[in-house]
Amino acid sequence: MTSTCLDATPPRTTAQGWAAAITMAVTIFTVVTAEMLPVGLLTPMGAALGISEGTAGLSLTVTGLVAAVSAPVLPLLLGKLDRRTVLVALMIVLAAASLLAAWSPNFGVLVVARILTGIAMGGVWLLTVGLAPRLVPPESAGPATALIFSGIGIASVLGIPAGTYVGELVGWRWAFASIGLLSVVLAVALALLLPRLPASAPVRLADVAAALELRQVRVGLLLVALLVTAHFSAYTYVRPMLEHFAGIGPALIGTLLLAYGVAGVTGNFVAGSVKSYRRMLGLIAALVASSVLALPLLGTSVPGALVLLLIWGFGYGGVSVTTQAWTLAAAPRAPEPASALLVGVFNAAIALGALTGGRIVDHGGPAAVSWLTGLLALTALAVLLSQRPKNPRL
User: Fold this and answer.
1) Which residues contact 303 (CB under 8 A, 6 or more apart)?
2) Which is higher by pLDDT, 160 or 186?
3) CA dist., res. 54 & res. 240, Å (int)
4) CB–CB of 76/205 below 8 Å?
5) d(CA 63, CA 69)
6) How far apart are CA 327 and CA 336, in angstroms?
């Protein structure tokens, strides 16, 4: 089985290698933020485009679906193209997509922009797997990997509040435009700081199929599907939920989401230090379920909503790093094929959560969606309790 799709290329210097790793962390942060940016902007986006909040949430669904497909398919299409060139090209695509979203005069144009965002997002995320050993000395590969992929967790919890603030200050279109401009800067930085990344044997469909045959890989993918769908069915519509339950105005929405983000960053690094991935995912499932189920009952004031958002943020903040660690532990000899599956399922779950949450919000109101989130998170907890994996890390 092919264990890597990239040749090992030593860094030019240690300083340049770490500069490249930091740039990749910012790149991952940017693409994930671009994917989830609509979460904090649904209300003004819907008003400007003349659509419901549930329909506006489909902009996240489209991006997740495209990323879910592009992540495993792109490596099969890229052949031996230098991965540095591909990464630069993908960031240019993201820049164009974000600027198109900022300009979009109607929902149809926005959908096209979000399709391009999904292509860029899925490709960048997957090509980043296994990149750290090609940037820094072998003894620093672990910390560099943690640094690069911290961009996913931090974007999940800080990118959205930042976009919300920009949207409130200068309008939602400028939030997308800011991502576009940042993507241009990162494309230039990647071209200058990354070493050449020639491809060797690409991932084959057979490799992906073989990784899927591993039981704990399948369990991990099921957990990702349940937890991420649970989270995004509610979090995509957290702004209308806060407005409905507690009557919170736009000025406070960004502040509350920032508090959620700080809690999420804390959860991200706490999860990274826990040795048992099973226990950490169990705690995540319990925290997400309890906080979201309590939101319609206890989140009817600013203090109540704040406390529940802190619990929710701390719990979900550890999902990215823990599920990635689970996947790599379950398939140590096939990291790229297993990661292709992880990225695909993760983004499909984002799309599914946004889609189902939107339908429920439009037909049953914000309170109804909390029950779906709670049910899915508790199901994930039940799956974890039923597992007795031989690997002590799992």
Assistant:
1) none
2) 186
3) 10
4) yes
5) 10
6) 10
State how many domains the chain has: 1
Count Cβ atoms within 10 A of the Cβ of residue 218 and give its class: 0-12 exposed, 13-18 middle, 19 or more buried.
Answer: middle
Residues 6 or more apart in contact with residue 33 via CB below 8 angstroms = 155, 159, 160, 162, 163, 179
Decide if 292 is inside a domain: yes
Within a domain: 392: no
* pLDDT tens-digit readout, 62-72: 888 898 888 77
- Rounded distance between C-alpha atoms, residue 136 and residue 62, angstroms: 36
Question: How is residue 268 written in tokens?
Answer: 């991200």
Distance of alpha carbon 287 from alpha carbon 319, whole angstroms:
12
Planar angle of CA 18, 189, 177, nearest 5 degrees: 125
Specify the 3-state DSSP secondary structure of 269. helix
Residue 103: how many CB atoms within 10 A of its CB? 14
Give CA–CA dist 320/337, Å, rounded: 17
Please work out, in degrees rounded to the nearest 5, the angle formed at the alpha carbon of residue 129 by the alpha carbons of 156 and 257.
Answer: 5
Rounded to a whole number of angstroms, the distance between the first and last alpha carbons of the chain is 23
Dihedral of alpha carbons 231, 233, 234, 240, sign: positive
Buried b (16+ CB within 10 A) or exposed e, 31-48: bbbbbbbbbbbbbbbbeb
**What CATH number is associated with residue 299?**
1.20.1250.20
Q: Which domain holds residue 285?
A: 14-385
pLDDT digits (tens, 9 = 90+) for 6-32: 444 544 567 888 899 999 999 999 998
CB contact set of 94 (below 8 Å; sequence gap of 6+): 30, 31, 34, 116, 117, 120, 121, 124, 179, 180, 183
Q: What are phi and psi of 58, to 5 degrees?
A: -65, -20
The arithmetic mean of pLDDT across residues 151-155, rounded, is: 77
Cα(201)–Cα(79) distance, rounded to whole angstroms?
A: 8
Q: Do the domain assignments include residue 359?
A: yes
Name residue, tokens 């576009």: 180
- Distance separating alpha carbons of residues 348 and 122, to the nearest angstrom: 11
Total residue count of the chain as it appears in this document: 394
The least confident of 13-27, 55-69, 146-160, 167-181 is 146-160
3-state class (DSSP) for residue 391: coil
Give kind and range of the element (H or E) at residue 311. Answer: helix 302-316
Does a structural domain hold residue 169?
Answer: yes
